[in-house]
């Protein structure tokens, strides 16, 4: 019968129309500024720099190795190395970024900087309401604007952050163990040196005696 | 018969579009449809010459969205091109990722762990389902069914995109696959959520079919319109659902057995007439087959690593050589051709985009049809301008 297909289709739309009144699941939208769907844990928007401790400038994990700057596909990162050094989380003296800018009008949120960073210093934020009336300055973030605490990182990506913390703790423990081993080795060496210093004294008379014996 | 004669005879069939003579009454009207026309899926122009309602000539004009993708890729590292491939066909970023990763893996001879292959199949088939659903939605939108089928498709697509976001971090620009595996492992909750979404998909396809397949208006507008003959389709290099709607059994998943596709049971739906309705129907049936593949893959997914431990992320320098990796993307054969000279960036990087090549037969399908059908025929090709212009 002509029109049967159309009637069948209209029944389907009627079902959908009525469905949203009956079942909560069928409501697919929310009224955005008032209601919000929580962002996925893995969601990524723009990068930020992680710092440990209370001071952002002292705690920045970034050591200005410039790998992210080199690997960034749209080249939106700009880094200037510092002249002096500051201790990193293991206590090793490292240079730090005197300047670290990200132009988020160029950034395409690809996460490659995060993947290549060997120091877990740069991570992805989930903040997406970044509209500004300043087209140039407002979208060029410097290191102060980029710096976010490790606690903040824990609130937005809890699983990933705990993994990172565990990895860093392991690294620190390894570094400490290495330092301890090195210190022990140094002490042992020093002791050996002492012993060696002492040894010639004991050896010398022997050789002397042997020499004397031969004579 | 001389050699020259056989040649012309062969060429006559497909190389020249049929000449449609104007009926001689009145003047020809030249219309520029686009580049800012709501039916053009982006910025695309069709210069159409009309005799009354009939199309006499049609010239596709593209390049408005050209972003220099291939040249940029020749200047950056292999990894840095991966996020750019998302932006080719922005509906199917994961398929594009896969095709590019496959080409690079062929170039360096890299193995992919089994679990990663399964993840790739799951993501590619989810991509196919959402792409076909929204393509049909757009087709109906162009037919004048303003909104309803498209919104139903987008409702379902949103569920799939939520899965993509919770796994890869981004809804559309996923940037997920890597040379030798995938970036992050899938979790049990993600698998459970995917199983739930996949379980709901057959009901959606049924609903879609009840809404559309037997609709008289759709049948009247689509059946017998924009016919693409199989010999022309083969000779023009058409691929994907468009080729299969013309009745040519050609699916790269069945031919190349790339990934782990040889482990799944699925059929390749074929059309009979090569008209718009067959293209619509092939897409619906492909969605059903994809759901079948998804169910098998989700059941059989093994545990294990997701990344080849020998794979390198930084300082990636393949040996000199060349490779062509291709997959059956939702729109057709998507291939990446790479030449390496041993440096950190490819010497030559070329994309074989299904959208662009499927568009080359647009004039042949449109000649002699009504101008209102041009929009429909164009919609049934399923193109994304990001991929056409690159």
Description:
The complex is a heterodimer of chains A (215) and B (390). Chain A has 215 residues and is α+β, with helices and mostly antiparallel strands. Helices cover 47% and strands 16% of the residues of chain A. Chain A has seven helices and six strands; from the N terminus they run H-E-H-H-E-E-H-E-E-H-E-H-H. In chain A, a hairpin with a 5-residue loop joins strand 2 (77-87) and strand 3. In chain A, helix 6 packs across helix 7 (158-214). Chain A is elongated, with a radius of gyration of 31 Å. Chain B is built from 16 helices and eight strands. In chain B, the strands form three sheets. Chain B has a three-stranded antiparallel sheet with strand order 1-2-3. In chain B, strand 7 (332-340) and strand 8 (348-352) form a beta hairpin. Chains A and B meet through helix 1 and helix 4 of A and helix 3, helix 6, helix 7 and helix 8 of B.
Notable characteristics:
heterodimer; A: 215 residues; alpha+beta; three-stranded mixed beta sheet; three-stranded antiparallel beta sheet; 7 helices; 47% helix; 16% strand; disordered C terminus; B: 390 residues; Cytochrome-c3 Hydrogenase, chain B; 16 helices; 49% helix; globular; disordered N terminus
């Amino acid at each position: 019968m002509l029109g049967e297909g159309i009637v069948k289709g209209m029944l389907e739309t009627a079902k959908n129309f009525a469905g949203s009144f009956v079942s909560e699941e069928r409501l697919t939208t929310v009224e955005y500024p008032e209601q919000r769907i929580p962002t996925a844990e893995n969601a990524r928007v723009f990068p930020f720099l992680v710092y440990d401790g209370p001071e952002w400038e002292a705690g920045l994990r970034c050591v200005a190795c410039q790998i992210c700057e080199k690997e960034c596909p749209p080249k939106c990162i700009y880094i200037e190395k510092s002249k002096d050094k500051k201790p990193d989380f293991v206590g090793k003296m490292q240079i730090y970024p005197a300047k670290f800018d990200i132009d988020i009008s160029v950034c395409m949120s690809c996460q490659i900087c995060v993947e290549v960073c060997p120091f877990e210093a740069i991570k992805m934020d989930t903040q997406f309401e970044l509209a500004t009336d300043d087209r140039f300055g407002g979208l060029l973030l410097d290191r102060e604007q980029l710096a976010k605490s490790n606690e903040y990182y824990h609130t937005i990506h809890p699983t990933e952050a705990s993994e990172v913390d565990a990895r860093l703790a392991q690294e620190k423990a390894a570094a400490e163990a290495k330092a301890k081993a090195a210190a022990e080795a140094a002490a042992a060496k020093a002791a050996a040196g002492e012993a060696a210093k002492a040894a010639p004294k004991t050896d010398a008379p022997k050789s002397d005696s042997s020499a004397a014996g031969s004579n | 018969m001389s050699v020259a004669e056989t040649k012309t005879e062969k060429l006559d069939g497909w190389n020249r579009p049929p000449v449609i003579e104007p009926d001689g009454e009145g003047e020809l009207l030249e219309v520029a449809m686009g580049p800012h026309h709501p039916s053009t899926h982006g910025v695309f122009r069709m210069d159409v010459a009309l005799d009354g309602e009939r199309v006499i000539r049609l010239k596709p004009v593209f390049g408005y969205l050209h972003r220099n993708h291939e040249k940029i890729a020749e200047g950056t590292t292999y990894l840095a091109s991966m996020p750019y491939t998302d932006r080719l066909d922005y509906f199917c970023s994961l398929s594009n990722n896969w095709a590019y990763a496959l080409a690079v893996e062929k170039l360096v001879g890299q193995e992919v762990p089994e679990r990663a292959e399964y993840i790739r199949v799951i993501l590619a088939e989810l991509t196919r389902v959402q792409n076909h659903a929204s393509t049909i939605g757009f087709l109906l939108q162009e037919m004048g069914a303003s909104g309803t089928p498209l919104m139903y498709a987008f409702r379902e697509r949103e569920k799939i995109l939520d899965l993509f976001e919770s796994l890869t971090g981004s809804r559309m620009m996923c940037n997920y696959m890597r040379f030798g595996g995938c970036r992050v492992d899938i979790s049990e909750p993600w698998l459970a959520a995917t199983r739930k979404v996949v379980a709901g998909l057959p009901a959606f396809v049924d609903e879609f079919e009840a809404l559309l397949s037997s609709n008289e208006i759709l049948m009247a507008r689509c059946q017998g319109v924009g016919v693409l003959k199989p010999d022309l389709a083969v000779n023009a290099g058409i691929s994907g659902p468009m080729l299969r709607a013309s009745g040519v059994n050609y699916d790269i998943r069945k031919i190349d057995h790339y990934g782990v596709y040889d482990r799944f049971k699925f059929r390749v739906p074929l059309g009979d007439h090569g008209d718009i309705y067959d293209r619509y129907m092939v897409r619906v049936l492909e969605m059903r087959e994809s759901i079948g593949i998804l169910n098998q893959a989700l059941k059989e997914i093994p545990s294990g690593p997701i990344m080849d431990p020998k794979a390198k992320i930084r300082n990636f320098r393949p040996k000199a050589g060349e490779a062509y990796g291709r997959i059956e993307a939702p729109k057709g054969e998507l291939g990446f051709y790479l030449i390496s000279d041993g440096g950190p960036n490819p010497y030559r990087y070329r994309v074989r985009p299904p959208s662009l090549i499927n568009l080359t037969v647009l004039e042949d399908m449109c000649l002699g049809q009504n101008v209102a059908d041009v929009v429909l025929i164009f919609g049934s090709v399923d193109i994304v301008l990001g991929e056409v212009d690159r």
